[in-house]
Amino acid sequence: MATLADDKNRYDISRYLLAHGLTDAARDTLNRDSNAESAEFHLVQAQIALAAKDLPAAQKASQRALEIAPRDPRATLMAAEIALLRPESRDQALAILENGLRFSPADVDLNRKRLALLMQTDRWQAIDQALAGLRAALSEAGASSTEANLAAAYAFERRGQFTRAISSTKPRSRRILTTSACSWPWPRPRKKAAGSPPPLTPTMACSDGPRPTRKLAARWQESNTTRSSLR
């Protein structure tokens, strides 16, 4: 397959070989490239170095890709991911992401990664800004804001702001809200009489995002119970 590679498909073939565990073949295919100073070349080179567990080479290749194409979100994300492989490097990765977002403020992956890193800290103002950035990016991409709502709920709960946490997860319509990656169920609502709308209890939790805790679920259930008693 390596002999079939040309300058148009070389990178795709290298990635294909790499995905099937053929690291040496992927490297050999890539090294036949006549344009060894393109950002794409160095991005694939970084992937091959990671597969070979050569962290210094991966870091060097990713940094070179970022130098060549500072506006390419893929180069930014690759450099940040590789930076995170070293101990105590979260701030460096955040700095790389912040710089990349200057050029691509609407990139969903960059906003998602920045928020995920900040959620590991208590930098509440930065978290709020990252949440706003992710919401805007999702909106521009025409995607659902569910993951941003879940992240906001988790952040508010950590601050002890349970009312805001609950309101962040309320769907706009009276229906059970689900996502494709949801698997962790909240307490299910009790059966209601025919014709009664279900309580606003979403069953949702994305595998790559913060999961609602039992405390927040209990607060939600208490809120629904109080609402029912007032009817």
Structural notes for this entry:
- This protein is mostly helical.
Question: How would you concisely characterize the structure shown here?
Answer:
The chain has 231 residues and is an all-alpha fold. 59% of the residues lie in helices and 0% in strands.
Question: β content, as a range?
Answer: under 5%
Note the overall shape. Answer: elongated
Radius of gyration: 22 Å
Structural class: mainly alpha
Low-confidence stretches: 172-193, 196-212
N-to-C SSE series?
Answer: HHHHHHHHHHH
The number of helical segments is 11
Q: Main sheet, how many strands, which sense, barrel?
A: none
Distance between the termini: 69 Å
Mean pLDDT: 77
Q: Percent of residues in helical segments?
A: 55-70%
Number of strands: 0
List the helices and strands and how they pair.
Blueprint: H1 10-19, H2 23-31, H3 39-51, H4 55-68, H5 73-83, H6 90-103, H7 108-118, H8 124-140, H9 146-158, H10 162-169, H11 214-229
Search tags:
59% helix, mainly alpha, 11 helices, single chain, 231 residues, elongated
